[in-house]
Design goal:
It is built from ten helices and 16 strands. It is α/β, with parallel strands linked by helices. Helix 9 runs parallel beside helix 10 (279-289). The model has no long low-confidence stretch (mean pLDDT 94).
Length: 308
């Protein structure tokens, strides 16, 4: 099953007609993971007919307003449906204070468990049944984190002709071998998975990086991502402004994608100074560095497929 990625908002600083603030939803095996929650996130959910009650984890990069102003509404909406599982929210310091403040001041009714994880630690953040989420500290004007979701390796390809040659009877023993278990035949001999299967295959990788200067380790953090969603807030002529405000230009995002060997890179978090037509300047500069770059747009749907 493909991983589905929905761009709920692609803008930075302030919402514009047709351009909400930064928010990306990832749907995998029925679970929904939300990366940032800018203003307009609720509207995008409605327009895409997505079920917010399925959100199990929210990952906040930092507590600047254009990345969190949609969060109070999402928390409130989640109380309007039956929910038995806790909602886990991850982010740097002050995420808890922000959430507690809005719940208390607005009197938001919450009828489910919210588990908040504040941390600036790098590395493994959380683990699911067959995936991990990793973090990296970014360089912004506030504590800011990048995220990557990495699936576990998959078993190698099963070769039935090899199993037949080794006289493994078709049926449950084949399934055991595909599950990685040795099997014993009637004559007492043992057949191991490596005798009938190819090498393990990589899982898929999604990376989310926004609001940062280029920093050591970022290439490795996003390396070999099947899809990198990366800020490209300014054109190259405004690179000094980008540096002062601690943001990436589109060209820098493209160079990062090229060096890191990612498959596809979608730009996000555009400055409101650019009209929709002018966004072409951003993607043109990114493609000079990385031809597979593209502009993300609000309500855009993407997929991440297995490579073999």
């Amino acid at each position: 099953m493909n991983i589905e990625v929905f761009v709920l908002g692609s803008g930075g600083m302030m919402p514009l007609p047709g351009r909400g603030l930064t928010s990306v939803l990832l749907r995998r095996e029925g679970d929904l993971f939300l990366f940032d929650c800018g203003e307009g996130t609720q509207i995008a959910f409605r327009r895409l007919n997505l079920r917010w009650k399925k959100i199990s984890r929210i990952f906040i990069s930092h507590t600047h307003a254009d990345h969190v102003t949609g969060l109070a509404g999402i928390l409130s909406l989640s109380s309007q449906v039956e929910r038995s599982e806790p909602l886990h929210i991850y982010g740097p310091p002050k995420v808890r204070a922000y959430i507690d403040h809005y719940i208390n001041v607005l009197g938001i009714y919450i009828n489910y468990e919210i588990v908040i994880h504040e941390s600036m630690d790098e590395g493994l953040l959380c683990r699911g049944d067959d995936f991990e989420v990793h973090t990296m500290r970014l360089r912004h004007s506030k504590p800011c984190m990048g995220y990557s979701l990495v699936e576990d390796e998959r078993p190698g390809t099963f070769y039935p002709e090899r199993a037949t040659e080794l006289e493994v009877p078709r049926g449950p023993l084949w399934s055991q071998l595909q599950a990685g278990n040795d099997v014993t035949l009637e004559d007492g001999s043992t057949v191991t998975p490596d005798q009938v299967m190819g090498a393990a295959r990589a899982g898929r990788k999604f990376a989310f990086v926004t609001d940062t200067l280029m920093c050591p380790g970022l290439d490795e953090f996003v390396s070999n991502a099947d899809l990198l969603i990366c800020e490209g807030m300014f054109t190259h002529d405004l690179r000094n402004s980008a540096r002062d405000k601690k943001h990436l230009t589109a060209a820098q995002a493209g160079a990062l994608a090229r060096r890191a060997g990612v498959r596809r890179m979608g730009l996000i978090h555009y400055s409101p100074r650019y009209t929709d037509r002018e966004l072409r300047k951003l993607v043109r500069e990114a493609r000079e560095e990385f031809p597979e770059a593209f502009l993300t747009r609000d309500l855009q749907e993407l997929s991440i497929e297995f490579q073999d």
